Every structure is written in structure tokens, then in C-alpha cells.
User: Fold this.
Amino acid sequence: MVSPVPAVDVPPQPWTGRFDGDGPEHRRWWQAVTPYAPRRVQPASARPAVILGFGSDAGVRRNKGRAGAAAAPAAIRAALGPLAFHLGREVHDAGDVTVAGDALEAGQARAGLAITSLLDAGQLPVVLGGGHETAFASYLGVAGSAAVREGLRVGVLNLDAHFDLRDEAVPSSGTPFLQMARAEAAAGRELRYAVVGISEPNNTRALFRTAEELGVDYLLDEDCSDEAAHAFVAAFLAQVDALYLTIDLDVLPASVAPGVSAPAAYGVPLPVISAVCRQVAASGKLLHLDVAELNPEFDPDARTAKVAARLVNTLLG
Assistant:
């Protein structure tokens, strides 16, 4: 018996895109994505991807960033819709969990329950944030899943210019990974956390010290050559049984991803980030993924949304 996904706030909406024909040779994402109907996937079959939006910028506001990320799930879907569909798996849409006002913790808890339900049904959740407070919602879902309950070693790989290990009285988009570390410690486990793309000028000494105390592996943005990134990710993948991948779009240069809360002056080149995504997909260890920090209000020509869509397409290919 498969339990239904806990109620979302916004049900799946119709997808749109260019129409070239009804045949499989013409198919685009908008024609391939169907509303999610709960069912358990047989282990031998490819895991269907299930898109879940997390419409939140409460964490960004708390972190004194540029609000607007709540509109990101719709913007990423709009960028995915016209893409040619070459995937060898089903893709479904479960709708959105939205955060009303400042009710962040309640929204994260609801999204976590939805993610756990999808994981336990054998699906591959693809969460479209939202600010990077999305990551703690994802963590709640992964930590509550049967995979973790049964002892699977899950690592968290963050593609990000920031550690997001702030020690604040109120959770925000800057605190999710410290929240994860404390929750894991309370459960008698240790957080396995690695970051690709850390910007030294944008992380204080206190944050580096916290990262060191928690045993966080990281690669600075200036050191992110193809070879270095590949070796770093390979070493981390070797330590875990499964991976939760989170992409904060501000890991990319501002010229590539201007529509984020904190555009990067330096950033990691898109080909390097794309190669990491291909590497993770090829590993067979991807358990869950999310994309965060798109702010459509500051995204000319939907440039950042299109990059986010391309990375999601790469990860599912």
C-alpha cells in the first residue's frame, strides 16, 4: 500500500511549451510531464522523477537577502517546458508546498513529509526552491525516509558559494546545514557534508571554523578546475551509499546566474557545475535533489531559470 503524498498547497498546473507534433520524435518536457499519482516503483525499474515546488523566500528575508524566490518553482517549470525531452525515465509533477508569510518552519515540515512519502514510494524527488531554506525541508524528508531508517549512509553535496552554517537564533536561508548537523547529532549520527564552490571572501572566519569543527569538505571557487572538481566529488561519493544534491544557483558567476539573492563576483563556470551534475547522475547514488535561490524578479530573459532547467535536465538524463 502506497500512502498518498501529503496535501500540497498548489496542485499541479498545466505545463506549456512549443508544439512541433504529438509523436515521440517531437516530444518536449511540457508534453511528457504528468500529474503525480502515488504508486510504488518496482526496484528493477528506473526511478521516476517527481517535481515538487517549495515556494518560499521567508528564509531569504530572515537572512536579509533579496526576496522573490517564492516565485521560482513556476519560473523553472516555465523554462523546462519547452526543452526537448530525451530522458529515459518518467517525470511527474506533485504541485507546490508554499510558505505563507513567515511560517517557514511549518512549510519545511510539510515539504519534508511530502519528500519522505515520495522517497518511500521509490521516486526521485526533484524539489524546486525557494531560497536555500529549501535545503532543510529536503533534509527533513531524507532523514525521515526508510533509506535512512535502514542505515543507508547519505551524504549531502552542496554546490554553493556559501557554507550556510550560520549560527542564528532564528533559522533562515543561511542556517540549514548547521541545523542538519545538530539534528544528525541529536539522532546519534554525523552529518556528511561537502561543498563545491566556496567563496572565501563571502564566508567569515567563524564560518570556516564551524566548517572545520564539523569536518566539512570543501573546494574553493578559485580551485574549481574540471579535474579538481571531479576528483573532489569522486572522493566524497566513495564515502557514501547515497547522495542528496543541493544546488544554490549563486555558485555560478553573476553573468550566468544574475537572478539570485547574492550574485557571485567570481563563481564556478557552468561547464564545471554541469560536469559535476553528470558525474553525480552517472554514479547511481542520487537519492534526492533540489535547486534553490532563483529570484525571477532579477532574472533578465529568464537567464538563471534556463540554467536551472538545463541542470535539472542533465541530472535526470
Remarks:
- The CA atoms of residues 30 and 81 lie 4 Å apart.
